[in-house]
Design a protein that fits this description.
The structure is a single chain. The chain has about 290 residues and is of the alpha+beta class. The chain contains seven helices and 16 strands. The protein is globular, with a radius of gyration of 19 Å.
Length: about 290
């Protein structure tokens, strides 16, 4: 099973041009795609519904979208009727197998005085793919504040841990026909894959919050509710130029990741970062699982 995660910066490439077709070409043929910074009806991106565009560019995929930022972009037509539109900014998931259910989780936010502070989110999709039932998350954490990310990660870990216990979007033995007529009770499986722009570096406390502390003798001491960094799990270096996912004037940073629960991490086969891609200010991250 092939997966790709890509912060597309609304399709704005290193040349400053917006080109969603270029993004699609760089992604290629993948079973599961996690996108961040997908825009809808924003004037700086030509009032384009990028969710609709990507749905057309990947016609064999099922899609889910979850905005963090959701603002009014409605207008009155010539008859004075409201044309409802929402100016949105968020995450998208595309899957070759049906998205059985999805939830958009809004993450904690700090109100900042000088720095841009956006409402961040994690989009969850339950799919029944080549690896069986699993949850996939497209995640985008805050960029400006480590304390904010710490709160966001705490919330994210709680969501990942509690979801199987809480059950699917509806559950229970005594369920009215209204819910059962159109399909069975939706599952909420344990295996989970989290891909996206976490806006943190591997030396940070937030990274340890996700994967557990590092012991000089015994290696990574994963917590019961922790996750596995698939990149290092497959033997890649924790950090370095070859790991960069966001080239910067001052430093090359690894801030885009794929984390997984243990049962999925052990099925990971390969992972690489496309350092030649030019469709965004980030580099796409590719991973493949054994089926």
């Amino acid at each position: 099973m092939k997966c790709v995660s890509y912060n597309i910066q609304y399709g704005t490439g290193k040349d400053g041009e917006i080109d969603l077709q270029r993004i699609a070409d760089e992604i290629g043929d993948a079973d599961v795609i996690a996108l961040q910074e997908v825009d809808r009806f924003n004037s700086t991106t030509g009032m384009t519904d990028q969710v609709a565009v990507f749905s057309e560019l990947f016609p064999t995929h099922y899609v889910a979208y979850g905005p963090g930022v959701d603002l009014d972009a409605s207008y009155l037509d010539d008859q004075g009727h409201v044309v409802n539109r929402r100016r949105q900014f968020g995450n998208m998931l595309l899957s070759k197998t049906p998205v059985l259910s999805s939830r958009n989780h809004l993450l904690p936010k700090y109100g900042m005085v000088d720095q841009l502070a956006l409402q961040r989110s994690a989009l969850e999709a339950v799919i029944d793919g080549p690896l069986g039932l699993m949850r996939v998350y497209s995640v985008h954490l805050g960029h400006a504040s480590a304390p904010e990310r710490t709160k966001q990660i705490r919330t994210l870990l709680r969501i990942v841990r509690q979801a199987p216990r809480d059950g699917g979007l509806w559950s229970g033995r005594d369920v009215a026909k209204h819910w059962t007529e159109d399909g069975p009770q939706p599952p909420m499986p344990g295996p989970a894959l989290l891909m996206g722009d976490f806006n943190l570096q591997p030396q940070s406390g937030e990274y340890e919050q996700l994967v557990g502390p590092l012991d000089g003798t015994y290696g990574r001491l994963s917590k019961l509710d922790g996750l596995i960094d698939i990149w290092t799990h497959l033997g890649h270096a924790l950090d370095g130029p070859e790991c960069k996912t966001c080239p910067d004037e001052k430093a090359d940073m690894r801030i885009d990741y794929a984390f997984a629960t243990v049962e999925l991490a052990d099925k990971a086969k390969t992972m690489h970062i496309d350092q030649q891609a030019t469709g965004s200010d980030h580099q796409p991250v590719y991973l493949e699982f054994r089926v």
